[in-house]
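User: Structure please.
Assistant: Input sequence and predicted structure:
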Amino acid sequence: MIAAVSLFLIITFSVLITKICTIALVHTGLSEEIAKFQSRSAYTGAGLSTKETENIMNHPVRRKIIYNLMLIGNAGIVTAMSSLILTFVLPESNASRLYGFLIIVGGMSFLWLAIRSKWVNNGLSKIITNMLKRYTDLQIHDYEAVLHLKDDFKIVEAEVDVDGWMCHRTLEELDLREEGITILGIQRKGAGYFGSPSGTFKMLPLDKVTIYGKAEGIESIYRRKKDHYAHLEHQKFVEKEEIRKANDQQKIKNLKNQ
């Protein structure tokens, strides 16, 4: 029964450790889903070779987090397997084995419900974030909050289509700012990354563009082709952005008058 309790504690600590690393990776700029996947991959030693893995290895802080997680994970998995074997091999009676089995099943069920709980997740995230700020030199930034990735705002990375509306046009010609769309950067094969490009920058086929703005507007941009419909779509979203700005100005006036 002691081995069963030990197994439950080891798995609980494993979940907590991967949670800490997930939050740490999120604070370096990764999305939560990617950070979660990479943390679990590193802890279990899966070693999946993906584009996201390359981004982690090229980032000194992320690389350090994953390196430490791999070391901890190697010891944790071995210990967990040892405890699992002892749970069913060491006891001499069936009753002891049954108690060990019930502890494992009950403990894992409780842990699973805790992991799925939004309340537990939010509370744990706040505690871990505060600990990372206090006890590490990691630059803590909540990018989701900073970029306000709510209310239908999002960041998307997508390629420029050969026959797409953006292809072979400068940012000045596209006039995306008037639609409320911001180009954060462009990755061009063989040329590298261009951060916050100016209005004279011309889009080329297969450029990977990182765009920030309303989801509806971004989806519209990548649907547009080089035809009259694209111009109409552009004008429609320019008008929507003007209305949004006017509403924001009205909100500011109302706050000043309060």
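Residues 145 and 153 are 11 Å apart (CA to CA).
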